[in-house]
Structure to design on (426 residues):
DNA sequence: GTATGGTTTAACCGTATGGTTAAATATTTC
DNA sequence: GAAATATTTAACCATACGGTTAAACCATAC
């Protein structure tokens, strides 16, 4: 677990710190923590490496800040969106759409989260794992309420959570690979293009159909 | 794209080469390509680093061999299993179960594939991407046949593929994190335990329900 | 114009890391 | 027992890389 050694005001970073964080997000997303070099982030940000250390700190500090920024208030957003509705189906829709919206807003999220999970969460900050736990607890509540109202069948909440985030993150994470393929039939390309913006809705619809009685 | 510089007989590796490949799979899975050091693999294998270079070659060669070994004949297995049945629902079940069975047989597969996709496939051998393309082409065929027979609704094949592998790989990839959590209610733990071995069936069932008319 | 904070320069340091090597040793094969 | 192959030893090399630093320069505020 990497500690945030320097408390950067993420709500109001200076211009230089913001440039560094933007560059760091992009490079960490593309290459992962170990595959990323500090020199590379500095070059991408258009600042000197010494500035990076002056403004933010070491690589661990930078990465922890990136994780914090990319995840944002995901857990809180999900909790608020789900609380606003009462019907379990609407709650599940809100849940899925929040996750998809956050991935839309932060394109670095899918690759970063995929690598973190691949690494067994060994380098995820504890607060992030707690956030994930709170999100899954929300889903457990939704599925339980839906089951009691005989809307949903009995399901494994972990599996459903992994289905939701797995679908969204894999779909978004594989876009660069897919966009390089030339063999894809045009009708499927067209169908895929229509999905833009509506990924959350589509995934929500599929998941709801999957667990409905 | 990493090239296999040395053609190791993967069907019949020597004892030492086998030890090295086993160690390499484990460490690459846990730490990723860049996070893994050659010394570490050698130590894990219980051989000298010079032996590793003698038997297999450089880090890229080793990694390419690991990818090849972990993926095995996944695409071919899927093609054969799907061809054995005629009903689109049974085809889809065979498709999902093959993917799940391969992940069962190769626990290193989820983390490695997650990282490769997170990296945009930049370091995946071309033959692997071609395998993935052929697998998705099989799914396109299944969904099309099912749609023509009015069993399945119209769906986005990429999204369905990502739903299938996303669910399986995320579920398996997050087991180390999940097993460390203490807040999980016992009934959910029990439900989760019952899933062991039946992940393919469960995911197939969910996906089929999701796309049925 | 001075003071202050931010940024760059241009190294530098210590450690790491992939990869190599010739000789020595060990193991296997015939 | 000799020959061939495998493995280890014990370095070594070149480059990389995270992180640091004091002085110089730049931008901004007063």
């Amino acid at each position: 677990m990497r500690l945030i050694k320097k408390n950067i005001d993420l709500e109001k970073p200076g211009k230089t710190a913001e440039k560094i964080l933007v560059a760091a997000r992009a490079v960490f997303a593309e290459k992962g923590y170990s595959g990323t070099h500090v020199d590379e982030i500095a070059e991408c940000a258009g600042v000197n490496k010494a500035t990076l250390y002056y403004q933010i700190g070491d690589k661990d500090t930078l990465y922890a800040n990136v994780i914090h920024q990319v995840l944002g208030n995901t857990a809180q957003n999900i909790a608020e969106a789900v609380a606003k509705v009462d019907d379990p189906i609407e709650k599940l829709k809100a849940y899925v759409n929040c996750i998809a919206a956050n991935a839309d807003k932060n394109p670095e999220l899918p690759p970063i989260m995929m690598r973190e999970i691949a690494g067994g969460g060994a380098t995820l900050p504890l607060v992030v794992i707690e956030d994930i736990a709170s999100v899954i607890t929300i889903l457990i509540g939704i599925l339980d309420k839906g089951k009691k109202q005989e809307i949903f069948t009995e399901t494994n909440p972990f599996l459903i959570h992994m289905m939701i985030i797995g679908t969204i993150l894999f779909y978004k994470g594989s876009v660069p690979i897919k966009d390089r393929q030339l063999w894809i039939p045009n009708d499927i390309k067209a169908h895929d293009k229509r999905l833009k913006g509506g990924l959350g809705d589509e995934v929500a619809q599929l998941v709801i159909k999957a667990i409905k009685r």
Q: What stands out?
A: Chain B is about 70% helix and 0% strand. Residues 183 and 189 of chain B are 10 Å apart (CA to CA). Residues 37-39, 49-50, 53, 58-59 of chain B lie near DNA strand C (CB under 10 Å from a C1').
